[in-house]
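Researcher: Re-running this chain for the archive, since the previous output was lost when a drive failed. Same request as before.
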Amino acid sequence: MKELTVKIGDTDYSKGEKGAILQLVEYGDYECPFSQLGYRLALILMRNTNFSIRFTIRNFPLKKHPNAQLSAEAALAAGSQGLFWEMHDLLFDNYQNLNKSRLTGLANDVGLDIKLFSEDLDQRKF
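Model: Regenerated structure tokens:
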């Protein structure tokens, strides 16, 4: 089996210790229930193991999911305001309903500057 090496950079969104023994990297899609399950499993492992784990998420929106790209951009727009993980969790919690209107509602729920958030999405900044 060929070994896969993934470099985790300073711009990646990660949870856990930088020097963790286990580094988990998920290439996820916010409309994908399997991506959501992968994230939930990582959280369970982080809470219930005796060794350090670092979890990193990278966006990988699938073309078959109509709102996946915009949802990924919404997560990054929230990240630019310091609320990536809050938005990330809400996106996965609402994966069956992620149209633009719902994204704006979720952004409001986490306390984002809605004007800036909307501008970022409209300009496709991310």
